[in-house]
Amino acid sequence: MRKFGFCLLFAAGFSLSPAYAGQWYTGSLVSPSGTTQKGILNVEPYSSYTQPLGRFGPHGQTLSATHPMQRMFTNSTLWKYGISQDFSIQLHTIVNYGWKHDEGHSHGPQAGDMPVDLIYRLVRPDPAHYIPAFNLFVGMIFPTGNYTKLGSSQDGLGSGAYVFRFALTEQSTYTLPGHHELRLRVWNWFRRAVTSAKLTDMTSYGTTNGFRGSGQPGMSGQTGFSLEYGVNQKWVLAMDLARDWANGSTLRGHDQNGAYIHKTGASATDWQIAPAIEYNWNPHWGIIVGSPFYFAGHNKNIQASPQFAINAMF
């Protein structure tokens, strides 16, 4: 991914030079950021609305959206604190409110599972010698969301399982002619469940009343890169390109008639591009507005998800 970005720049006739330190950023919509400064609390709340547009079939064909459509409002907030120059801790809180025709609404805002990550900067950046920053994320997704004995299928946002996850990220910044900054990020996430969820009645795994058994989410991950181009110190154009993949969840147990069930859901992938615009009032406050768009994949919904986020440092 990184080599591809460099090839595009040189093909356009750009001569890269070390980064200019005065550029302000919020960060792109999808890419994970690295460590923050020691003693600094970085808070970034996202608000989004998700609207289905269609779906990708098992062979990648584009199909009409499944009815009734699932719609959702989401507030997703990143909380990051710098423990030392090269070490940070990050929490991610998620609250959703969903509805679907004929299936009702959520019983109020519902909390999702909560990822907690430790972030260690393996390599400090050296723009003068074109050395990027490398960061290692190691964390766990805690099963804080509702997943079993649900009053409505709209309340099931959790998996009920502890999920280990890690990522390796790269970030580098370069100055283009005219003193326009270009920041490149490359990342790779991997997630794997380390426990199973005990399931009863209606659950987030699609079971109904009378079911007794267990479930476990499949392995999943994401790979991508982002570009952020500084129009001037305050305005930035951002773009993410990412591929998501997920193995199907495993379900075991007995339904209300006593029949044994053991099945694994279909795997899924998607490709998304997420253009956005950033505006920064100063180095500590900024806003980003944009939306991911899904243009390829299989066994996944095609959806628009317009969103905005405020990035603040204290």
Short description:
By secondary structure, the protein is mostly beta strands. 3% of the residues lie in helices and 58% in strands. It has one domain: Porin.
What's the CATH class, please?
Mainly Beta
Specify the helix fraction band: under 10%
Question: What's the Cα radius of gyration?
Answer: 21 Å
Note the overall shape.
Answer: globular
- The chain-level mean pLDDT equals 90
**Unreliable runs:** 1-18
Could you give the count of β-strands? 22
Q: What order do the strands of the largest sheet run in, or round the barrel if closed?
A: 2-4-5-8-9-10-11-14-15-18-19-22
Distance between the termini: 33 Å
According to CATH, the fold-level topology is: Porin
Describe the 3D structure.
With 314 residues, the chain is mainly beta. The chain has a single domain (2-313), classed as monomeric porin ompg (Porin, Beta Barrel). It has one helix and 22 strands. It has one helix spanning 2-11; strands spanning 17-18, 41-56, 62-63, 70-84, 87-100, 104-105, 110-111, 114-123, 133-142, 163-176, 180-193, 197-200, 212-216, 220-230, 235-246, 250-254, 260-264, 268-282, 285-290, 293-298, 300-304, 307-313. Strands 2-4-5-8-9-10-11-14-15-18-19-22 form a twelve-stranded antiparallel β-barrel. The chain has a four-stranded antiparallel sheet with strand order 12-13-16-17, with no helix packed on it. A hairpin with a 2-residue loop joins strand 4 (70-84) and strand 5.
